[in-house]
Amino acid sequence: MTRAMYMSKLYAPTLKEDPADAELASHRLLLRAGMIRKEAAGLYSYLPLAWRSIRKIENIVRDEMDAAGAQELMMPIMVDAELWRESGRIDAYGKELVRFDDRHGREFVLGPTHEETVTALVRNELRSYKQLPVNLYHIQDKFRDERRPRFGLMRSREFIMKDLYSFDKDVEGMNVSYQKMYDAYTNIYNRMGLAFRPVEADNGAIGGGHSHEFTVLADAGESNIAYCPHCDYAASDEKAELAPISAPAEDALPLEKVATPGTNTIESLCSFLQIPAEKTIKAVAYQTDADELVLVFLRGDHEVNEVKVKEVPALDDEFAKDVSEFDTLKELKADIKKKLTAERTESAQRAFEDVLMAKVAEGVEADVPHEMVELQAEQMTEGFKQQLASQGIPFDQYLKMTNTTEADFKSQAYGPAEQQVKMDLAISAIVKAENLEATDDEVEAEMKKVADRYGMDLDTVKKYLRPEEVKEQVIREKVIKLVADNAVAGAPAEALAEEETEAEAAEEKKPAKKAAAKKPAAKKTAAKKTTVKKPAAKKTAAKKPAVRKAAKKSEEA
Question: pTM score > 0.70 for this model?
Fold first, then answer.
Protein backbone atom coordinates (compact mmCIF):
# COMPACT_ATOMS: atom_id res chain seq x y z
CA MET A 1 0.00 0.00 0.00
CA THR A 2 1.29 3.43 -0.95
CA ARG A 3 0.84 6.04 1.73
CA ALA A 4 -0.17 9.57 0.78
CA MET A 5 2.43 12.32 1.08
CA TYR A 6 1.38 15.97 1.17
CA MET A 7 3.97 17.99 -0.73
CA SER A 8 2.89 21.17 1.06
CA LYS A 9 3.97 19.57 4.34
CA LEU A 10 7.08 17.83 2.98
CA TYR A 11 10.20 18.25 5.07
CA ALA A 12 12.88 18.53 2.39
CA PRO A 13 15.20 21.48 3.09
CA THR A 14 17.08 22.10 -0.16
CA LEU A 15 20.43 23.76 -0.72
CA LYS A 16 21.34 26.28 -3.43
CA GLU A 17 25.09 25.59 -3.40
CA ASP A 18 27.10 22.39 -3.57
CA PRO A 19 28.51 21.36 -0.16
CA ALA A 20 32.27 21.70 -0.08
CA ASP A 21 32.90 18.17 1.24
CA ALA A 22 30.69 16.40 -1.33
CA GLU A 23 32.97 14.69 -3.87
CA LEU A 24 30.53 12.73 -6.04
CA ALA A 25 27.57 14.04 -8.01
CA SER A 26 25.24 11.59 -6.21
CA HIS A 27 26.39 12.89 -2.82
CA ARG A 28 25.91 16.52 -3.87
CA LEU A 29 22.42 15.87 -5.27
CA LEU A 30 21.25 13.95 -2.19
CA LEU A 31 22.29 16.87 0.01
CA ARG A 32 20.92 19.60 -2.23
CA ALA A 33 17.60 17.79 -2.75
CA GLY A 34 17.04 17.59 1.00
CA MET A 35 17.19 13.79 1.16
CA ILE A 36 20.06 13.33 3.66
CA ARG A 37 21.93 15.38 6.24
CA LYS A 38 25.36 14.71 7.66
CA GLU A 39 25.58 14.28 11.42
CA ALA A 40 29.29 13.33 11.57
CA ALA A 41 31.86 11.68 9.32
CA GLY A 42 30.12 8.66 7.81
CA LEU A 43 26.88 9.24 9.76
CA TYR A 44 23.71 10.56 8.07
CA SER A 45 20.05 11.23 8.81
CA TYR A 46 17.66 10.01 6.11
CA LEU A 47 15.01 12.64 5.50
CA PRO A 48 11.45 11.72 4.36
CA LEU A 49 12.12 11.44 0.60
CA ALA A 50 15.21 9.28 1.06
CA TRP A 51 13.54 7.10 3.69
CA ARG A 52 10.52 6.56 1.44
CA SER A 53 12.86 5.46 -1.39
CA ILE A 54 14.73 3.07 0.90
CA ARG A 55 11.47 1.44 2.00
CA LYS A 56 10.50 0.84 -1.63
CA ILE A 57 13.86 -0.85 -2.27
CA GLU A 58 13.41 -2.97 0.86
CA ASN A 59 9.99 -4.09 -0.34
CA ILE A 60 11.44 -5.30 -3.65
CA VAL A 61 14.09 -7.24 -1.72
CA ARG A 62 11.47 -8.74 0.60
CA ASP A 63 9.29 -9.84 -2.32
CA GLU A 64 12.14 -11.80 -3.91
CA MET A 65 13.45 -13.24 -0.64
CA ASP A 66 10.01 -14.45 0.38
CA ALA A 67 9.44 -15.92 -3.08
CA ALA A 68 12.69 -17.89 -2.71
CA GLY A 69 11.46 -19.42 0.56
CA ALA A 70 13.51 -17.26 2.94
CA GLN A 71 12.14 -15.99 6.27
CA GLU A 72 12.78 -12.53 7.69
CA LEU A 73 13.90 -11.98 11.27
CA MET A 74 15.44 -9.23 13.37
CA MET A 75 18.57 -9.66 15.48
CA PRO A 76 20.13 -7.35 18.08
CA ILE A 77 22.58 -4.70 16.95
CA MET A 78 24.57 -5.16 20.17
CA VAL A 79 26.41 -8.48 20.04
CA ASP A 80 28.29 -10.25 22.82
CA ALA A 81 32.02 -9.93 22.05
CA GLU A 82 32.57 -13.52 23.22
CA LEU A 83 30.78 -14.74 20.08
CA TRP A 84 33.33 -12.89 17.97
CA ARG A 85 36.19 -14.36 19.98
CA GLU A 86 34.70 -17.80 19.49
CA SER A 87 34.68 -17.34 15.71
CA GLY A 88 38.20 -15.86 15.72
CA ARG A 89 37.13 -12.75 13.79
CA ILE A 90 37.37 -10.15 16.53
CA ASP A 91 40.95 -9.37 15.56
CA ALA A 92 40.38 -9.78 11.80
CA TYR A 93 38.08 -6.74 11.75
CA GLY A 94 40.50 -4.74 13.87
CA LYS A 95 39.54 -1.14 14.64
CA GLU A 96 36.59 -1.23 12.25
CA LEU A 97 34.75 -3.20 14.91
CA VAL A 98 32.93 -0.81 17.26
CA ARG A 99 33.55 -2.20 20.80
CA PHE A 100 32.35 -1.05 24.20
CA ASP A 101 31.62 -2.27 27.73
CA ASP A 102 28.21 -2.12 29.38
CA ARG A 103 27.71 -0.92 32.96
CA HIS A 104 28.59 -4.39 34.25
CA GLY A 105 31.93 -4.47 32.43
CA ARG A 106 30.79 -6.99 29.83
CA GLU A 107 32.24 -6.35 26.35
CA PHE A 108 29.93 -5.90 23.36
CA VAL A 109 30.32 -4.97 19.70
CA LEU A 110 28.02 -3.20 17.27
CA GLY A 111 27.36 -5.79 14.57
CA PRO A 112 29.16 -5.08 11.26
CA THR A 113 27.64 -8.35 10.06
CA HIS A 114 25.68 -11.06 11.84
CA GLU A 115 27.16 -14.48 10.98
CA GLU A 116 28.13 -15.06 14.61
CA THR A 117 24.75 -13.98 15.93
CA VAL A 118 22.63 -16.09 13.61
CA THR A 119 24.85 -19.16 14.08
CA ALA A 120 24.56 -18.90 17.86
CA LEU A 121 20.79 -18.50 17.44
CA VAL A 122 20.16 -21.64 15.39
CA ARG A 123 22.75 -24.00 16.87
CA ASN A 124 20.64 -24.41 19.98
CA GLU A 125 17.38 -24.76 18.06
CA LEU A 126 18.10 -26.92 15.01
CA ARG A 127 18.63 -30.47 16.28
CA SER A 128 18.02 -32.61 13.21
CA TYR A 129 18.92 -32.57 9.52
CA LYS A 130 15.21 -33.09 8.90
CA GLN A 131 14.65 -29.44 9.90
CA LEU A 132 16.91 -28.30 7.03
CA PRO A 133 17.15 -26.35 4.82
CA VAL A 134 16.51 -23.10 6.68
CA ASN A 135 17.06 -19.72 5.03
CA LEU A 136 16.91 -16.64 7.28
CA TYR A 137 17.40 -13.01 6.27
CA HIS A 138 17.28 -9.59 7.86
CA ILE A 139 17.41 -5.94 6.78
CA GLN A 140 18.83 -3.67 9.46
CA ASP A 141 21.55 -1.24 10.46
CA LYS A 142 25.21 -2.31 10.54
CA PHE A 143 28.21 -0.46 12.01
CA ARG A 144 31.82 -0.30 10.86
CA ASP A 145 34.22 2.36 12.09
CA GLU A 146 35.69 3.09 8.66
CA ARG A 147 39.16 4.58 8.58
CA ARG A 148 38.11 7.15 5.99
CA PRO A 149 34.36 7.48 5.35
CA ARG A 150 33.76 9.06 1.95
CA PHE A 151 31.41 9.45 -0.99
CA GLY A 152 28.36 10.10 1.15
CA LEU A 153 26.33 6.94 1.64
CA MET A 154 28.68 4.82 -0.44
CA ARG A 155 31.17 4.32 2.42
CA SER A 156 29.67 5.26 5.74
CA ARG A 157 30.05 4.04 9.30
CA GLU A 158 26.37 3.24 9.82
CA PHE A 159 24.48 1.68 6.91
CA ILE A 160 21.49 -0.51 6.08
CA MET A 161 22.36 -3.98 4.88
CA LYS A 162 20.43 -7.05 3.88
CA ASP A 163 21.94 -10.44 4.74
CA LEU A 164 20.67 -13.97 4.15
CA TYR A 165 22.04 -17.03 5.95
CA SER A 166 21.33 -20.53 4.70
CA PHE A 167 21.65 -23.74 6.72
CA ASP A 168 21.77 -26.96 4.72
CA LYS A 169 22.42 -30.62 5.48
CA ASP A 170 25.06 -31.14 2.77
CA VAL A 171 27.05 -29.45 0.01
CA GLU A 172 24.46 -30.33 -2.60
CA GLY A 173 21.77 -28.62 -0.57
CA MET A 174 23.99 -25.61 -0.02
CA ASN A 175 24.52 -25.26 -3.77
CA VAL A 176 20.76 -25.34 -4.31
CA SER A 177 20.25 -22.56 -1.75
CA TYR A 178 23.08 -20.55 -3.27
CA GLN A 179 21.56 -20.75 -6.75
CA LYS A 180 18.16 -19.67 -5.40
CA MET A 181 19.74 -16.55 -3.95
CA TYR A 182 21.70 -15.91 -7.12
CA ASP A 183 18.45 -15.94 -9.10
CA ALA A 184 16.68 -13.80 -6.50
CA TYR A 185 19.40 -11.15 -6.62
CA THR A 186 19.22 -11.14 -10.40
CA ASN A 187 15.49 -10.46 -10.16
CA ILE A 188 16.04 -7.66 -7.63
CA TYR A 189 18.47 -5.78 -9.83
CA ASN A 190 16.35 -6.28 -12.94
CA ARG A 191 13.23 -4.98 -11.14
CA MET A 192 15.17 -1.86 -10.12
CA GLY A 193 16.34 -1.30 -13.70
CA LEU A 194 20.04 -1.32 -12.84
CA ALA A 195 22.93 -2.24 -15.15
CA PHE A 196 24.88 -4.83 -13.17
CA ARG A 197 27.33 -7.69 -13.32
CA PRO A 198 27.57 -10.70 -10.98
CA VAL A 199 31.32 -11.05 -10.44
CA GLU A 200 33.51 -13.61 -8.71
CA ALA A 201 34.71 -12.08 -5.48
CA ASP A 202 37.00 -12.69 -2.55
CA ASN A 203 35.33 -13.92 0.64
CA GLY A 204 37.35 -11.62 2.87
CA ALA A 205 36.99 -11.86 6.63
CA ILE A 206 33.53 -13.41 6.25
CA GLY A 207 35.00 -16.62 4.84
CA GLY A 208 33.39 -19.30 2.73
CA GLY A 209 34.46 -21.20 -0.37
CA HIS A 210 32.61 -19.35 -3.10
CA SER A 211 31.32 -15.82 -3.52
CA HIS A 212 29.69 -13.49 -6.03
CA GLU A 213 29.14 -9.77 -5.76
CA PHE A 214 26.38 -8.11 -7.73
CA THR A 215 28.03 -4.93 -8.91
CA VAL A 216 26.30 -1.92 -10.43
CA LEU A 217 28.26 -0.44 -13.34
CA ALA A 218 28.95 3.21 -12.66
CA ASP A 219 31.54 5.88 -13.28
CA ALA A 220 32.32 6.18 -9.58
CA GLY A 221 32.22 3.64 -6.83
CA GLU A 222 34.07 1.44 -4.37
CA SER A 223 35.09 -1.44 -6.61
CA ASN A 224 36.82 -2.13 -9.89
CA ILE A 225 35.87 -5.14 -11.97
CA ALA A 226 37.26 -6.93 -14.98
CA TYR A 227 34.80 -8.45 -17.40
CA CYS A 228 34.63 -9.83 -20.92
CA PRO A 229 32.06 -8.25 -23.28
CA HIS A 230 32.01 -11.46 -25.38
CA CYS A 231 31.46 -14.05 -22.63
CA ASP A 232 30.08 -14.36 -19.10
CA TYR A 233 33.41 -13.96 -17.27
CA ALA A 234 33.49 -11.19 -14.68
CA ALA A 235 35.48 -10.81 -11.47
CA SER A 236 36.51 -8.16 -8.97
CA ASP A 237 40.02 -6.78 -9.26
CA GLU A 238 40.87 -8.70 -6.10
CA LYS A 239 39.82 -12.03 -7.62
CA ALA A 240 40.40 -11.62 -11.37
CA GLU A 241 42.88 -13.99 -12.96
CA LEU A 242 45.90 -12.40 -14.59
CA ALA A 243 46.99 -13.24 -18.10
CA PRO A 244 50.72 -13.40 -18.86
CA ILE A 245 52.14 -10.04 -19.89
CA SER A 246 53.70 -10.20 -23.35
CA ALA A 247 56.93 -8.31 -23.82
CA PRO A 248 59.39 -8.07 -26.70
CA ALA A 249 62.40 -10.37 -26.47
CA GLU A 250 65.56 -8.66 -25.26
CA ASP A 251 69.13 -9.82 -24.88
CA ALA A 252 70.15 -10.02 -21.26
CA LEU A 253 73.03 -7.75 -20.31
CA PRO A 254 75.80 -8.78 -17.93
CA LEU A 255 74.97 -8.08 -14.30
CA GLU A 256 76.66 -5.11 -12.70
CA LYS A 257 76.45 -3.23 -9.42
CA VAL A 258 75.15 0.32 -9.71
CA ALA A 259 75.30 2.99 -7.02
CA THR A 260 71.85 4.49 -6.33
CA PRO A 261 72.26 6.97 -3.46
CA GLY A 262 69.13 8.56 -2.05
CA THR A 263 66.74 6.41 -4.10
CA ASN A 264 64.28 4.71 -1.73
CA THR A 265 61.26 4.49 -4.06
CA ILE A 266 60.66 3.09 -7.54
CA GLU A 267 59.84 6.60 -8.75
CA SER A 268 63.13 8.07 -7.52
CA LEU A 269 65.08 5.07 -8.85
CA CYS A 270 63.56 5.40 -12.31
CA SER A 271 64.24 9.14 -12.30
CA PHE A 272 67.83 8.60 -11.18
CA LEU A 273 68.64 5.83 -13.68
CA GLN A 274 66.43 7.24 -16.47
CA ILE A 275 64.64 3.93 -16.98
CA PRO A 276 60.91 3.05 -17.22
CA ALA A 277 59.20 1.54 -14.17
CA GLU A 278 58.21 -1.61 -16.09
CA LYS A 279 61.94 -2.43 -16.35
CA THR A 280 62.29 -2.63 -12.57
CA ILE A 281 61.38 -5.09 -9.83
CA LYS A 282 60.40 -4.08 -6.30
CA ALA A 283 60.06 -6.01 -3.07
CA VAL A 284 57.21 -5.33 -0.60
CA ALA A 285 57.55 -6.66 2.94
CA TYR A 286 54.75 -8.24 4.97
CA GLN A 287 54.65 -9.58 8.50
CA THR A 288 52.30 -12.50 9.07
CA ASP A 289 50.26 -13.29 12.16
CA ALA A 290 52.90 -15.95 12.89
CA ASP A 291 55.51 -13.15 13.03
CA GLU A 292 57.13 -14.32 9.81
CA LEU A 293 58.59 -12.00 7.19
CA VAL A 294 57.22 -12.41 3.66
CA LEU A 295 58.69 -10.61 0.66
CA VAL A 296 56.53 -10.09 -2.42
CA PHE A 297 58.42 -9.34 -5.64
CA LEU A 298 56.60 -7.66 -8.49
CA ARG A 299 57.13 -5.36 -11.44
CA GLY A 300 57.91 -1.80 -10.46
CA ASP A 301 54.80 -0.30 -12.08
CA HIS A 302 52.43 -2.79 -10.44
CA GLU A 303 50.74 -2.78 -7.03
CA VAL A 304 50.38 -5.71 -4.66
CA ASN A 305 47.02 -7.49 -4.63
CA GLU A 306 46.88 -8.23 -0.90
CA VAL A 307 43.97 -10.64 -1.27
CA LYS A 308 46.04 -12.86 -3.52
CA VAL A 309 49.04 -12.57 -1.21
CA LYS A 310 46.93 -14.10 1.56
CA GLU A 311 45.81 -16.92 -0.71
CA VAL A 312 49.17 -18.66 -0.75
CA PRO A 313 48.98 -21.82 -2.90
CA ALA A 314 49.68 -25.20 -1.41
CA LEU A 315 53.30 -26.30 -1.78
CA ASP A 316 52.65 -29.58 -3.57
CA ASP A 317 53.35 -31.31 -6.87
CA GLU A 318 50.71 -29.24 -8.67
CA PHE A 319 52.44 -26.06 -7.52
CA ALA A 320 55.77 -27.40 -8.82
CA LYS A 321 54.24 -28.12 -12.24
CA ASP A 322 52.75 -24.62 -12.44
CA VAL A 323 55.96 -22.71 -11.64
CA SER A 324 58.69 -24.94 -13.09
CA GLU A 325 59.55 -27.69 -15.54
CA PHE A 326 59.54 -30.28 -12.75
CA ASP A 327 56.74 -32.77 -12.04
CA THR A 328 57.17 -33.02 -8.27
CA LEU A 329 57.82 -30.64 -5.40
CA LYS A 330 60.76 -32.81 -4.32
CA GLU A 331 62.50 -32.29 -7.67
CA LEU A 332 61.85 -28.52 -7.52
CA LYS A 333 63.29 -28.26 -4.01
CA ALA A 334 66.34 -30.27 -5.03
CA ASP A 335 66.95 -27.96 -8.00
CA ILE A 336 66.56 -24.84 -5.85
CA LYS A 337 68.96 -26.25 -3.27
CA LYS A 338 71.47 -27.11 -5.99
CA LYS A 339 71.36 -23.60 -7.47
CA LEU A 340 71.58 -21.92 -4.06
CA THR A 341 74.54 -24.09 -3.10
CA ALA A 342 76.27 -23.24 -6.38
CA GLU A 343 75.64 -19.53 -5.87
CA ARG A 344 76.93 -19.65 -2.31
CA THR A 345 79.99 -21.61 -3.39
CA GLU A 346 80.76 -19.11 -6.14
CA SER A 347 80.21 -16.18 -3.79
CA ALA A 348 82.48 -17.74 -1.17
CA GLN A 349 85.10 -18.42 -3.82
CA ARG A 350 85.07 -14.80 -4.98
CA ALA A 351 85.35 -13.55 -1.40
CA PHE A 352 88.25 -15.94 -0.79
CA GLU A 353 90.04 -14.75 -3.92
CA ASP A 354 89.55 -11.08 -3.00
CA VAL A 355 91.04 -11.64 0.45
CA LEU A 356 93.86 -13.70 -1.03
CA MET A 357 94.85 -11.06 -3.59
CA ALA A 358 94.58 -8.33 -0.96
CA LYS A 359 97.14 -10.28 1.10
CA VAL A 360 99.35 -10.56 -1.96
CA ALA A 361 99.13 -6.79 -2.45
CA GLU A 362 100.05 -6.24 1.19
CA GLY A 363 103.21 -8.26 0.56
CA VAL A 364 104.47 -5.78 -2.03
CA GLU A 365 107.30 -4.03 -0.17
CA ALA A 366 108.38 -1.67 -2.96
CA ASP A 367 107.39 1.97 -2.70
CA VAL A 368 104.54 2.68 -5.09
CA PRO A 369 105.14 5.86 -7.12
CA HIS A 370 102.60 8.56 -6.33
CA GLU A 371 102.13 9.15 -10.04
CA MET A 372 100.91 5.59 -10.55
CA VAL A 373 98.39 5.93 -7.71
CA GLU A 374 97.29 9.30 -9.08
CA LEU A 375 96.81 7.80 -12.54
CA GLN A 376 94.89 4.80 -11.14
CA ALA A 377 92.61 7.07 -9.08
CA GLU A 378 91.98 9.14 -12.21
CA GLN A 379 91.17 6.02 -14.23
CA MET A 380 88.82 4.75 -11.51
CA THR A 381 87.06 8.12 -11.44
CA GLU A 382 86.71 8.20 -15.23
CA GLY A 383 85.47 4.63 -15.25
CA PHE A 384 82.82 5.48 -12.68
CA LYS A 385 81.79 8.51 -14.74
CA GLN A 386 81.37 6.32 -17.82
CA GLN A 387 79.32 3.84 -15.84
CA LEU A 388 76.99 6.62 -14.69
CA ALA A 389 76.81 8.05 -18.23
CA SER A 390 75.77 4.66 -19.64
CA GLN A 391 72.82 4.85 -17.24
CA GLY A 392 71.98 8.41 -18.24
CA ILE A 393 73.21 9.92 -14.95
CA PRO A 394 75.43 13.01 -15.10
CA PHE A 395 78.40 12.88 -12.74
CA ASP A 396 77.60 16.29 -11.29
CA GLN A 397 74.11 15.04 -10.42
CA TYR A 398 75.67 12.13 -8.56
CA LEU A 399 77.98 14.49 -6.66
CA LYS A 400 75.03 16.68 -5.72
CA MET A 401 73.00 13.72 -4.44
CA THR A 402 75.94 12.43 -2.38
CA ASN A 403 76.89 15.94 -1.18
CA THR A 404 80.52 15.58 -2.32
CA THR A 405 82.89 17.32 -4.74
CA GLU A 406 84.97 15.78 -7.52
CA ALA A 407 88.13 16.45 -5.50
CA ASP A 408 86.58 14.63 -2.51
CA PHE A 409 85.67 11.71 -4.76
CA LYS A 410 89.23 11.40 -6.11
CA SER A 411 90.65 11.69 -2.60
CA GLN A 412 88.44 8.83 -1.45
CA ALA A 413 89.65 6.79 -4.42
CA TYR A 414 93.35 7.03 -3.43
CA GLY A 415 93.20 4.17 -0.92
CA PRO A 416 91.55 1.65 -3.30
CA ALA A 417 93.78 2.98 -6.11
CA GLU A 418 96.96 2.27 -4.16
CA GLN A 419 95.67 -1.20 -3.30
CA GLN A 420 94.90 -1.85 -6.96
CA VAL A 421 98.32 -0.65 -8.12
CA LYS A 422 100.05 -2.95 -5.63
CA MET A 423 97.87 -5.83 -6.76
CA ASP A 424 98.64 -5.11 -10.44
CA LEU A 425 102.37 -4.98 -9.68
CA ALA A 426 102.17 -8.30 -7.84
CA ILE A 427 100.18 -9.91 -10.67
CA SER A 428 102.62 -8.59 -13.26
CA ALA A 429 105.53 -9.99 -11.29
CA ILE A 430 103.87 -13.40 -11.01
CA VAL A 431 102.93 -13.43 -14.72
CA LYS A 432 106.55 -12.61 -15.67
CA ALA A 433 108.07 -15.08 -13.23
CA GLU A 434 105.76 -17.93 -14.25
CA ASN A 435 105.56 -16.97 -17.93
CA LEU A 436 101.72 -17.07 -17.86
CA GLU A 437 99.78 -16.52 -21.09
CA ALA A 438 96.21 -16.78 -22.42
CA THR A 439 95.61 -18.67 -25.64
CA ASP A 440 92.88 -17.85 -28.18
CA ASP A 441 91.06 -21.04 -27.21
CA GLU A 442 91.09 -20.00 -23.56
CA VAL A 443 89.71 -16.55 -24.45
CA GLU A 444 86.97 -18.19 -26.53
CA ALA A 445 86.13 -20.58 -23.68
CA GLU A 446 85.88 -17.68 -21.22
CA MET A 447 83.46 -15.83 -23.53
CA LYS A 448 81.41 -19.03 -23.85
CA LYS A 449 81.31 -19.28 -20.05
CA VAL A 450 79.95 -15.71 -19.81
CA ALA A 451 77.33 -16.46 -22.48
CA ASP A 452 76.16 -19.59 -20.61
CA ARG A 453 76.08 -17.77 -17.28
CA TYR A 454 73.74 -15.04 -18.52
CA GLY A 455 71.81 -17.10 -21.06
CA MET A 456 73.12 -15.02 -23.99
CA ASP A 457 74.22 -15.82 -27.51
CA LEU A 458 78.02 -16.04 -27.92
CA ASP A 459 78.03 -13.50 -30.76
CA THR A 460 76.15 -11.03 -28.54
CA VAL A 461 78.73 -11.45 -25.77
CA LYS A 462 81.52 -10.74 -28.24
CA LYS A 463 79.87 -7.41 -29.06
CA TYR A 464 80.20 -6.31 -25.42
CA LEU A 465 83.56 -7.85 -24.48
CA ARG A 466 86.86 -7.06 -26.14
CA PRO A 467 89.33 -9.96 -26.56
CA GLU A 468 92.02 -7.95 -24.76
CA GLU A 469 89.84 -7.57 -21.68
CA VAL A 470 88.95 -11.26 -21.65
CA LYS A 471 92.60 -12.19 -22.11
CA GLU A 472 93.56 -10.13 -19.06
CA GLN A 473 90.81 -11.82 -17.08
CA VAL A 474 92.00 -15.30 -18.07
CA ILE A 475 95.56 -14.47 -17.02
CA ARG A 476 94.32 -12.97 -13.76
CA GLU A 477 92.41 -16.17 -12.98
CA LYS A 478 95.56 -18.19 -13.65
CA VAL A 479 97.44 -16.00 -11.19
CA ILE A 480 94.71 -16.40 -8.57
CA LYS A 481 94.67 -20.19 -9.04
CA LEU A 482 98.43 -20.32 -8.75
CA VAL A 483 98.38 -18.27 -5.55
CA ALA A 484 95.47 -20.26 -4.14
CA ASP A 485 97.17 -23.59 -4.85
CA ASN A 486 100.15 -22.42 -2.85
CA ALA A 487 98.15 -20.79 -0.06
CA VAL A 488 97.96 -22.27 3.41
CA ALA A 489 94.26 -21.53 3.84
CA GLY A 490 91.74 -24.28 3.02
CA ALA A 491 89.40 -24.04 0.06
CA PRO A 492 86.23 -22.03 0.71
CA ALA A 493 84.11 -24.75 -0.93
CA GLU A 494 85.15 -27.15 1.81
CA ALA A 495 84.14 -24.68 4.50
CA LEU A 496 80.86 -24.12 2.71
CA ALA A 497 80.17 -27.84 2.52
CA GLU A 498 80.86 -28.13 6.24
CA GLU A 499 78.53 -25.18 6.91
CA GLU A 500 75.84 -26.78 4.74
CA THR A 501 76.13 -30.07 6.65
CA GLU A 502 75.81 -28.30 9.99
CA ALA A 503 72.75 -26.36 8.77
CA GLU A 504 71.05 -29.53 7.56
CA ALA A 505 71.79 -31.29 10.84
CA ALA A 506 70.30 -28.37 12.79
CA GLU A 507 67.20 -28.43 10.61
CA GLU A 508 66.70 -32.16 11.23
CA LYS A 509 66.52 -31.43 14.95
CA LYS A 510 63.33 -29.36 14.43
CA PRO A 511 60.69 -31.84 13.11
CA ALA A 512 57.87 -30.05 14.92
CA LYS A 513 58.41 -26.88 12.92
CA LYS A 514 58.34 -28.79 9.63
CA ALA A 515 55.13 -30.52 10.59
CA ALA A 516 53.48 -27.22 11.50
CA ALA A 517 54.28 -25.85 8.09
CA LYS A 518 52.13 -28.55 6.51
CA LYS A 519 48.97 -27.44 8.27
CA PRO A 520 46.24 -26.10 5.98
CA ALA A 521 46.25 -22.81 7.88
CA ALA A 522 49.67 -22.10 6.46
CA LYS A 523 48.20 -22.04 2.99
CA LYS A 524 46.20 -18.93 3.69
CA THR A 525 48.14 -16.80 6.09
CA ALA A 526 46.64 -13.48 7.01
CA ALA A 527 49.32 -10.89 6.44
CA LYS A 528 49.60 -7.34 7.67
CA LYS A 529 51.39 -5.09 5.28
CA THR A 530 54.19 -3.03 6.66
CA THR A 531 54.35 -0.58 3.74
CA VAL A 532 50.75 0.11 2.69
CA LYS A 533 47.38 0.54 4.22
CA LYS A 534 45.22 -2.49 4.92
CA PRO A 535 42.11 -2.54 2.71
CA ALA A 536 38.88 -1.81 4.47
CA ALA A 537 36.34 -4.59 4.92
CA LYS A 538 33.52 -4.65 2.42
CA LYS A 539 29.93 -3.94 3.30
CA THR A 540 28.54 -7.08 1.74
CA ALA A 541 28.13 -10.60 2.98
CA ALA A 542 30.36 -12.73 0.79
CA LYS A 543 28.69 -16.09 1.51
CA LYS A 544 25.75 -15.12 -0.64
CA PRO A 545 25.33 -12.68 -3.48
CA ALA A 546 25.34 -9.27 -1.88
CA VAL A 547 23.66 -6.04 -2.92
CA ARG A 548 26.33 -3.49 -3.84
CA LYS A 549 25.31 0.14 -4.03
CA ALA A 550 27.75 1.19 -6.74
CA ALA A 551 30.94 0.20 -8.43
CA LYS A 552 33.40 1.75 -10.78
CA LYS A 553 33.34 0.35 -14.28
CA SER A 554 36.61 -1.15 -15.36
CA GLU A 555 38.26 -1.37 -18.74
CA GLU A 556 36.82 -4.16 -20.85
CA ALA A 557 38.86 -7.36 -20.89
Answer: no
